[in-house]
Amino acid sequence: MNGVPETEDQQRMRFQVELEFVQCLANPNYLNFLAQRGYFKDSTFINYLKYLLYWKEPEYAKYLKYPMCLYFLDLLQYEHFRREVVNSQCTKFIDDQQILLWQHYTRRRTRLLQNAAEQQAQHNPQQNNGVAQPKVL
């Protein structure tokens, strides 16, 4: 910038803008959009992507709703990936794989939660729907 420190409002706005942009990177179709418009050939933009790697630090990553964006942010550091993502077929493949991962994760997570609930019910038969039942003497 011009050497003048940012105000608190400016810092908050920059944080929000960068958070939103980094999360957009989780969308392969958006990556394709950026690639087709030549952003990935611009050295200033590439430097900006390097700068955004700070989002991988835990104190910032905790604000992300779409952690997959960090994986794509890593991939965007490589010229080969930036060249390939301009191809719509490549982007479609990435999008399909991402959906399959989410479906697998959701099914697996649901199964793990069901198993945990069943085990808890077996170990705590006195509880009914999370409400403790009085002991019968």
TrEMBL record:
So which domain of life are we looking at?
Eukaryota
Q: What is this protein called?
A: Uncharacterized protein
Q: Which organism is it from?
A: Eretmocerus hayati
Organism classification, top ranks? Eukaryota, Metazoa, Ecdysozoa, Arthropoda, Hexapoda
